[in-house]
Amino acid sequence: MKIGDNILVDGKFPATILYIGLVDNHPGEWIGIEYWNQQGKHNGYFNGKFYFQTKHQLTGSFIRSQRIQYGNSFTQAIYKQYIKAFSNDYINHDINYSIFGKQYSDYAVELSSIIRIDLSSQWVNEFDDNDYIYNNLCQIKELNIRQNLIKNWSQLWIILEKYFPKLEILNVNLNLLTFILENFINKIKNVTNLSLSDNQRLIEWDPFINRLGLLPFLQELIINNCGIEQIKLPDQDFNVDSNELFQSLKYVYISDNKISSYSLLISLSILRNPIYGLNQFENEIAKQMIIARLLNLTYLNRVIINQDERRGAEINYLEGYAQDNFDKK
User: Which of 91, 121, 264, 277 lies at 20 to 30 Å from 37 by C-alpha?
Assistant: First the structure.
């Protein structure tokens, strides 16, 4: 156990360890944590003393080590969810055999017969080595690892390249994703749908998101609630023309961010961002502005834009532009 570990509290609440040690006037060792999506009691400031600092005001707490669990490795989660019959030759003896209980038998299938893996909320904390498992997953086209405890993302990128060559759909929502390495793109080059939502530390569009623009087949990108403040296509320092990015992209969902500006996109979902107003009239103005400025936009907030709506938006935009120029003169 060390500072920075992602853990489960009471088997169901994900958190990160920020402090290990003594607490004044409370005997024994205490673990200072920050809950991911559960309200705590403080921000690390307790009884007049700072022990650690949380990102939010009431997400911190002190607990005893007995309440901590560490989740599963990737292959443990696969065993738990999918495997019905297996040989002892393929079992790592470090695995907790209690996960092979009767309650999982209804979900078990032959690994080589599946094309979709769903490990959402299975509290995966690491990507371990097990060639038998991975070599039977090379046909997988969809991987869902939403809401887990993954800390070392570089392990994921390596495994995706080595064992999932046919992967097309990847969901890593609700983790603690903090970076997208440039060489990661080579490891998911066939991905068509990528969901990164609810990774609150992924706060910058440029350069992190722009690297995804190099994916040749990416059609749908979902980055809701990541704290992104602006959409910024790269300048010359990125060593690629912005027109060469996102060549296959059709749908982008960026709701619940902090965006107040926009750029050229084909499909846009930007609900609950500051670009929208506070009432229906302001919302309609913002909507028409977006439609008029983005010539290739065909969907807005998952609703198709018809020809009459586009024509009206463009006329209103041109009238407003002309009026602004007249007023300046």
Answer: 277
Residue 94, exposed/middle/buried by CB under 10 A (0-12, 13-18, 19+)? Answer: exposed
The CATH class that applies to domain 6-69 reads: mainly beta
Task: Write the pLDDT tens digit of every residue in 271-285.
Answer: 556 655 556 666 777
User: Structural domain boundaries of the chain?
Assistant: 6-69, 71-164
pLDDT tens digit sequence for 134-149 = 888 889 999 999 988 8
**Which residues does 101 contact at the CB level (< 8 Å), separation at least 6?**
none
How would residue 321 be classed by pLDDT, with cut points 50, 70 and 90? low
Burial (0-12, 13-18, 19+ Cβ within 10 Å), 195: buried
| Cα dist from 136 to 29, 140, 210, whole Å | 44, 9, 33
Output 28-32 pairs: Cβ under 8 A, ≥24 positions apart: 28/64, 29/64, 29/65, 30/62, 30/63, 30/64, 31/1, 31/62, 31/63, 31/64, 31/65, 31/68, 32/60, 32/61, 32/62
Whole-angstrom Cα distance, residue 226 to residue 224? 6
Tell me the pairing of strands 267-269 and 299-300: parallel
What is the pTM (predicted TM-score) of this model? 0.69
Cβ-in-10-Å burial (0-12, 13-18, 19+) of 261 comes to exposed
As given in the structure block, the two tokens for residue 7 are 């853990």
Tokens describing residue 261: 């500006």
pLDDT greater at residue 32 or residue 83: 32
**Residue matched to tokens 């869902």:** 144
Asked if 79 and 94 touch (Cβ cutoff 8 Å), the reply is no
